[in-house]
């Protein structure tokens, strides 16, 4: 069953590109604000950039499950060599496309435009065939989780923007109820909501965070449970 051209595969490629671009963009913003002397804002951009990297890695693992190494010690030398070779193949493929197709095309378009501005064309990412339907079900689940994460990032940036205008920081609080208290991953900002649980990892809806087994890991970046902290939400005025 060839799912190379499925909508989810294309969405994974687009999401990987978007998260990768966000990482570099936020690192650029971090440098800009650092030069402006706004060190806390610079720190926020840099931390979020790292979280976007975790998101991109999660997408890429689903795009290329053959590269997802979970227990390197269990691999034979031949298997390790095959994984490294695949990484090199993909790297060569990307660089070859850039020098043989992408940049020559950009240069030709720039010459045609005559005003010196190059027309940026979208690079279509080719994803290898993935036959296991479970991979795509997990992708759908991850996209749902990332919706809340990106909303959290947007709120953080909105608060930082308001702070630049002199607005007082928003008041935040815990729910006080373990049955509804959300927790957030310090590594990628995945938010665990006990109301929905994490069914894909065997955590049923309605499971308080404290009741989750200690060996449970973040479904986005794989961080351990101990890296989660209580998520404090803004209190309505």
From TrEMBL:
Alphabetized GO MF terms: iron ion binding; oxidoreductase activity
Pfam families, per the entry: Rubredoxin, Rubrerythrin
Domain Ferritin-like diiron: 2-147
Keywords in alphabetical order: Electron transport, Iron, Metal-binding, Transport
InterPro entries: Ferritin-like, Ferritin-like_diiron, Ferritin-like_SF, Rbr2/Nigerythrin, Rr_diiron-bd_dom, Rubredoxin-like_dom, Rubredoxin_dom, Rubredoxin_Fe_BS
Domain Rubredoxin-like span(s) in chain numbering: 180-231
PROSITE patterns (UniProt xref): FERRITIN_LIKE, RUBREDOXIN, RUBREDOXIN_LIKE
Keyword Ligase in annotation: no
Entries under Gene3D superfamilies matching the protein: 1.20.1260.10, 2.20.28.10
Protein name as annotated: Rubrerythrin
Species of provenance: Dulcicalothrix desertica PCC 7102
């Amino acid at each position: 069953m060839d799912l190379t051209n499925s909508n989810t595969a294309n969405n994974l490629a687009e999401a990987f590109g978007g998260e990768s671009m966000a990482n570099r963009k936020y690192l650029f913003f971090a440098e800009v604000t650092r030069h402006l002397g706004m060190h806390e804002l610079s720190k926020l951009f840099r931390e979020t950039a790292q979280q976007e990297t975790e998101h991109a890695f999660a997408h890429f693992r689903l795009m290329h499950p053959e590269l997802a190494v979970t227990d390197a010690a269990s691999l034979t030398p031949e298997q390790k060599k095959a994984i490294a070779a695949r990484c090199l193949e993909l790297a060569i493929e990307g660089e070859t496309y850039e020098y043989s197709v992408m940049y020559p095309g950009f240069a030709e378009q720039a010459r045609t435009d005559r005003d010196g501005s190059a027309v940026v064309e979208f690079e279509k990412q080719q994803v290898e065939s993935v036959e296991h339907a479970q991979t795509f079900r997990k992708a759908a689940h991850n996209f749902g989780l990332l919706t809340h994460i990106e909303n959290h990032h947007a709120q953080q940036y909105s608060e930082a923007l308001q702070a630049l205008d002199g607005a007082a920081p928003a008041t935040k609080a815990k729910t006080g109820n373990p049955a509804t208290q959300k927790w957030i991953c310090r590594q990628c900002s995945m938010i665990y909501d006990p109301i929905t649980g994490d069914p894909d990892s065997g955590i049923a809806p309605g499971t308080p965070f404290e009741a989750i087994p200690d060996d449970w890991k973040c479904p986005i970046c794989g961080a351990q449970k101990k890296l989660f902290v209580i998520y404090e939400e803004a209190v309505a005025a």
